Amino acid sequence: MNIDALLAPTPVAWLEAACEQWQVLLADHGYCEKKAASTALALIFAYPECTGQCLALARLAREELRHFEQVTRMMERLQVPFTRLRPGRYAAGLRAAVRTHEPQRRVDLLLVGALIEARSCERFRLLAKRLPAPLAGFYDDLARAEARHGELYLEFAREAAVAAGVADYSARLQELAAIEAELIITADEQLRFHSGPPRGSARSA
Fold it and tell me: pTM value?
């Protein structure tokens, strides 16, 4: 999914905080990769009849777990200790907007997946330009993977909408993107990979 589809850029205040607290960000990144793998698996269990989608998501889940392994090794290399972190409100805020009836639910879940991957791609690109090696190269590589993942989710969302005759596909993407943008620009108490800017800073820059 092209990051141009995102309705708000990451606030500069978040990027500055992320560069200062890169250890916290790296620890949360590990959680994000595990969650991304589990999301793909959940979709496989929820829609086993969608064979093509399931096979593609199985590959995606394996790649996300490899990313988790890479993050763990990077933490060891940079001597960043494991820390138990409370999850932020971003993913929960998006999933709260998912419709509960089918086939709209499947379309929404895939669109949410696409938006999360697009935001991850955008942030990896920003961090790659600001952080020193080895994180810069690591995040640059991951940005390309997230772009592929976003396009995959978006492709399956389109296919699901067409197959089910869901007429509001484009409008629904805009609605969910608006929710995603508000979550990203609203201040947060804690820094997370998908959090808004630190509380007390400008909403955007």
Answer: 0.94
